[in-house]
Structures are given as structure tokens and as C-alpha cells.
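Usage example:
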Amino acid sequence: MKDCLFCKIIKKELPSKIVYEDDNFFAFNDINPVAPIHILIIPKKHIPSVNSLTASDKELIGELFLVAQKIARAEKATETGYRLTFNVGENAGQTVEHLHLHLLGGKKLLWS
Amino acid sequence: MKDCLFCKIIKKELPSKIVYEDDNFFAFNDINPVAPIHILIIPKKHIPSVNSLTASDKELIGELFLVAQKIARAEKATETGYRLTFNVGENAGQTVEHLHLHLLGGKKLLWS
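Running the assembly step on the lines above writes:
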């Protein structure tokens, strides 16, 4: 998507602190971290949000969580615990319309 | 799993407020809700956490998010926004060792 911030980050037209990259996924540090570990893991395919997922995205989403597990392990977040979150829409504070999974860790996380 | 709380809920050996059920998934209201909509969506297969996912679970996890989308739509959470979260381990406050996806909605959600 031409005007999508995250598509530009994937294409390296915009800078990011890259954590992981493969053929289908890209991960980078959140610029407004709310935890010591705060990484965004995104599919390279432009999918606006969870609301837009279709049956054809099933395998991609499954794979995304295996990538998240791999990154959590590399960041040693698996030892102390971590959170994986999709925010969808306004009430959840989704600010970029490109599906992104938050990986939060490195501290005791609040819950509400 | 014999001693798993959520396996017992799936088998209806323990009561729950059921929101959704199909061959592979089960969803019910969280007994300690932190938002007006707070539903747990779980695979019937006993998987302890995101850390235990393997490549063979890919399709199941993809399907779980299509189920989550369907429930969010039925609960009208898609209109105002919602959050989908896996808590993994201690720092995230995972209390039951059976993979469960939190669906939170119906209010402006905090972020930290």
C-alpha cells in the first residue's frame, strides 16, 4: 500500500530498528515502547486489521505466532513471560492500519 | 488433560457462560472481567501456552483468529474496537496453562 507507514518501513523507505525479517514477516522496535521489550511483528502483506482477515490468511496468521515465539525466545522473554496483542480499532488504540502484533515483555505487565 | 481447568470447562464438567462452540474451539466469559466484553477463546486441544506451539498448530491458530473475528462481530465489538491478547507466563499473569485468547472490548482500553 503506497501510503501505509508500515509498508514503507518494510520496504526500508522509512527507518526502523529491525529485530527480525524473513520472506513473509518483519519485526521492529515500537517507537513508543510501553515495556522494556516492545516489538511490532507484522506480515509483509498489507492487511489492515484483524477485522479484514479472511480464510486465505489462516496459515499466515498461524506462522506469525511461530515467528513471535521465535522472537520471544531470542529476546529471552520466554523465561519471565510476555504478552502478544492485536489492537483493533479505536477503543484499543490501533493507530496504523496495517496488522501488527505487539510483543511486550521485560516487566510485570498491567492488566485492564 | 485430566487436571486442566479449561479442559474441564470444555467437557462441561465445570460451568461457564458459553459464548461460542464448534468442533475445535470453545469461548466463554472470563470470570474476572476487566472490560464490559471479556471473553476467553480456547482451542479444545490442550496446548499449554504460546511457548508450546509447533508448526503443526499453525492452521489451528489461524482459525482461532477467524473465530475471534466472528465473536467480535457478534458482540458488536468490531464497531468500537477490541483487543486480542495472549498472556504467556508470569510477567503477563497467565494463570491457566491452557492456551487462551482474551477478547476485550466495550470500553476504551488502557495501554501499558
